[in-house]
Amino acid sequence: MAGKAVQLDPVRGRARIDVLDVMRGIAILGILYMNIPFMATNPAAWMDDIRRLSWSAADRATWTTIEVFWNGTQRGLFEFLFGAGVMVFTAKAMRPDDPVAVADLYYRRNLLLVAFGLIDIFLVAWIGDILLAYGLSALFLFPFRKAPAKVLLAMGMGFAAFVAVSGASEYSKRIEMIHKVESLEARQTQGAKLNGADKKILADWQEKREAHDLSKPPSKKAQAMIDAERKAHVAGPWAFLKNNWGVWNKIFGDGNGTFFTVLEAVCAMFIGMALWKWGVIQGERSVRFYAVTAVAAYGLGCGLRAWGVAEIFAFDLAPKPGWITDEFARLAVTLGHVALFNLAMKTGAGRSLLAPFKAVGRMAFSIYVLTSVVTLWFIFAPWGLNLWDRFGWAQLALAATVINVFMLVFANVWMRFFVSGPLEWVWRSLAYGKRQPFARRPAEPSMGTLAPA
Asked: Which of 145, 166, 195, 380 is most exposed by smallest CB count within 10 Å?
């Protein structure tokens, strides 16, 4: 069918939506607070009990604040924004007679994102990479761009419902296990002879108990993992790479980890698409709407998370309500962030305060990979500053803040001279099949600045 050719070019300059760039910048920097413990410490040493890393008053306050208000929500923000970005990108493909070139470009971009994710995993050695999962997730979104917002929201809540059902099942199983252990221990006290299976149940349960007993050393299994991780960090770059490949393969290699990561991302991206269609994520609603939404979302999400933290701080084997409510709480707090940042962007003071994050948001891909390279291969590497496994929770948060300030300044300086980040430039050039503008022309306005736009 003959028709007018559609110009396909990257979105630049005033065509961009500032609040989306601001939130993307905050998300890409904020995610470091959750990632840095896995970059800077030996996770095997504290995965069974967070107190084994460090547990001063400052550590408790830091860990609680991050857990209630931040953990998982920066990933959530990025997922919402990815969904909104799909709507922006596919705006030229919303009618039946729109060109197939939009779909070609869309899938080519996201297949390239998958390739970049593999590079991040196997060359940068970041086991917590999100690029691969998001590239795979995006492949499922294009056919749903025309779906009604209510349908997108319903599909988007699917993973939260799955987590609630599976969490309720685990909750029930844990109660049954506690009753079984109590019964076996009572029989053992009375002198009854237990079979091999019953003895194993009690031994496994005792091992779990001792994981929360700080007077006890780590279990043999945990100690073996601790030693392997420590050896990999001192044996040189090749040993470090191989160790991280092995860790990634344990988490994602069987496909289950990747499947559930993609499922979570796809569902959250559906919600982001719905929020776009309702004009929520891009700042089209009223001040009152964002204020009420922020209060309600934070009240629900932070309330559930605070309850969960109180349960965690018992440091016992009792079933936790958070197993059921965790994903609903994460989505609620993420929505609270969306409302809060949009509310701030509707005021002069808020726009001034948040303006520096625009530059980070406009080169988020580059900042994300650069942060991984700097932390893994320089700050915490034995051949770099050798700061690995030296910090507690509060110190890790401070280190993340210092790194983020550096990245914030770097992004704003970079965007004064260049149209995009270096990895964004490579990505776009490959996706569009032609070299994209890189250096900023003298007369061209800066896209990133430390002053408000």
From this structure: 195
Tokens, residue 348: 């002069």
SS3 (DSSP) at 171: helix
CB proximity list for 216: less than 8 A, separation 6 or greater? 210
Confirm if 164 and 324 have CB atoms less than 8 A apart. yes
Place of tokens 């964004």: 424
pTM across the whole model: 0.92
Q: What are phi and psi of 282, to 5 degrees?
A: -100, 10
User: What is the distance between the alpha carbons of residues 238 and 428, in angstroms, rounded to a whole number?
Assistant: 31
**Helix, strand, coil tally for the chain in percent (to 5):** 70, 0, 30
Domain ranges of the chain: 13-166+238-432
Residue 439 pairs with which residues in a beta bridge? 418
Nearest to 73 by CA among 274, 271, 225, 258: 271
Token pair belonging to 26: 């905050």
Closest CA to 37 of 7, 13, 68, 67: 67
Please write the tens of the pLDDT for every residue from 331-374.
Answer: 999 999 999 999 999 999 999 999 999 999 999 999 999 999 99
Residues 6+ apart with CB under 8 A from 214: 49, 51, 52
Q: Residue 297: which of 354, 245, 339 has the closest Cα?
A: 339
pLDDT, one tens digit per residue, over 382-423 is: 999 999 999 999 999 999 999 999 999 999 999 999 999 999
Question: CA 434 to CA 213: how far, in whole Å?
Answer: 60
Residues ≥6 apart with Cβ < 8 Å to 399: 36, 40, 379, 387, 391
